[in-house]
Amino acid sequence: MKLYKALAGLSLVAVLLSSCATYYQRTQQMQTYVQQGKLNEAQEVLLKDKKAEKGKNRVLQYFNLGWLEFARGNYQQSLIYMEKADLYIEDQQKNYGSEALALLTNPNVKAYAPEDPEKVMVNYYKAMNYLMLGNNESAMVEARKITQRLYDLNDKYKNRKNRYADDAFAHILIGLIYDASNDVNNAFIAYRNAVKVYDSIYTPQFGIPIPDQLKKDLLRTAYLNGFQDELTFFSTKFNTKYKHQPQSLANLVFLWENGMGPVKSEWSLMFSKLNSSDGFMQFQNDEMGLAVPFNTGALSNADRSALSDLSVFRVAFPKYLERKPIYGSANIRLGDQVFALNKAQDCNAILFKTMEDRMLREFANSLLRLATKKALETAVKSKDKTAGAILGIVNAMTEQSDTRNWQTLPYEISYVRIPVPKGPQTIILDLKSSQGNKEICIDVDMPEKGQVFKSFRTLDAGPAQSRILNQKR
To answer: Which residues pair with 269 in a beta bridge?
Structure first.
């Protein structure tokens, strides 16, 4: 009787979990308000959930509330939420009760563990908040944390297999902050580091070329430092001849966050077991051309036996759905001058590649979950065939992937540096799309000298849709 009661409880959990929509579908109202630019209403939706900051999705609550405050210009309040998210990421410990339940059901029962690029974007928004508040020193600390966090994250993975091993945009941000402090030596070093990352990672892996603005800033700081050899080298590399033009005006660094990042959905694959030897099992999916070795050394005897009994089985994986931005490019106009915005960061491409890089780890986790379920099912069936059959149904119903993610991230980030006269000025953001162009007037108040940062977000994006993993934009 106790066994049937336990199975009844598991069956109820299975029904609840199997009937759940994806996280994106469950947060559709908030997402709709965001894309309509109704940020106050989006925040109200989030704050209605009084338990959100204590539940398993608390870090996602901090992400979204922090971004909403940033987008509304409430930089101090945004910092509070982003700091909570950052502390949560640093202090996140495994909850072994939820880990055990996840092995019997699916990873949605655990507290959400952010993706590596999501962890990095927390430091980006903290840095931007500090820059908007005029605190360049604290902004520099956060920008430097981006590169250190990536080094720490990638040290977790054997052979450093993640392609997102360094962040070119973080080095640009560091350079821009040094530039704002007239430290042209360290600015040059940061810009040079950014070029290295574009050459080694961003261009070959994500299809992002070195931004023209970065080339200009690198050549300018090489000249100002008197680094003639470096100036000659990079002038040749960029196929340009540098001509120094002293500036008497303050600079506006304009950052354009465009579109909406991807959302997670789910897909599943049928695998067949090929063979097993020397502590390894080989699994294959003919449709995708996948052959995956799995080390069974860490499994219990029961789990290893359960996997050995399997011939064909289904495994659920998370996948991203792309939301392509409506605007493909943009310029800044000031009087009769036109300045092209240069794409420096492709959040969408990085998230897709990161997901692709961890597919083998996802497969290993899914196999461990499947082995645990199958071992329990076998043990129950040995005592009661009917109970074992019920548990088999429960196991099938609870096989789901984790579809949670930070859904208010931008699709991409572009930037440009322009000289602007002192006092209140109006610049025009000229947005380009296949559906027509759009002009947005933006007011800035410029000092006589120095550097001012301005961030602007366009939220227009298409519907969430599938994309081939190896596809490049």
So the answer is: 315
